[in-house]
Design brief:
The protein has a single domain, classed as Sufe protein. Chain: A. The chain contains 6 helices and 3 strands, in the order ααβββαααα. α3 packs parallel to α6 and α5 packs across α6. The structure holds FE2/S2 (inorganic) cluster. The site of FE2/S2 (inorganic) cluster (FES) has 10 residues, from α3 and α6.
């Protein structure tokens, strides 16, 4: 086996061991979204936006596009942990294609945790961060809906 092949094999085995460790704590859904996040992106000139800092110091940004009060696009960015990436993907999925009033009713930490088949106790706050960021982005959308010019003065 060549030197590079040894290094590749070592890296692959190490990654497998790390994922096996994670499987003791996280559901398959969390690991899947952690490894392959959905909707982790920025939207330029969003109709709704928020940036929220969680109790752990990590933050999440939510970006929304809407048409006739339907959330047509929802994305997120985070500097948080893998569980937060899974929560951001889930909250974006919940919002997409639905009227914003329906999303408001659906978005809460329990719903995110349920859709992820659970989270470890020490990561429940990651779902709080995602739901709070989405609620604030929806509020931002509502605030700017009737005064679109105010979007340019968004902080
Ligand atoms: Fe900070 Fe998950 S958001 S640990």
């Amino acid at each position: 086996m060549k030197k590079n092949e040894n290094a590749d094999e070592f890296a692959r085995k190490l990654q497998e061991q790390i994922i096996d460790q994670y499987r003791k704590y996280y559901s398959d859904k969390v690991i899947e979204l952690w490894e392959n996040p959905k909707y982790m992106d920025k939207i330029s000139e969003p109709d709704g936006y928020s940036k929220v800092k969680g109790t752990c110091g990590d933050s999440m940004e939510i970006f929304l596009k809407a048409k006739n009060d339907i959330i047509t696009e929802a994305t997120f960015l985070t500097d948080g942990c893998g569980a937060t990436i899974a929560c951001g993907s889930t909250v974006a999925e919940i919002a997409r294609g639905k009227p914003f009033t329906k999303v408001l009713g659906l978005v809460n930490a329990n719903e995110i945790i349920k859709r992820l088949d659970g989270l470890p106790k020490e990561h429940l706050h990651c779902a709080d961060l995602a739901s709070e960021a989405m609620r604030r982005a929806l509020a931002d959308y509502l605030y700017h809906r009737n005064s679109p010019w105010k979007k340019h003065y968004r902080k």
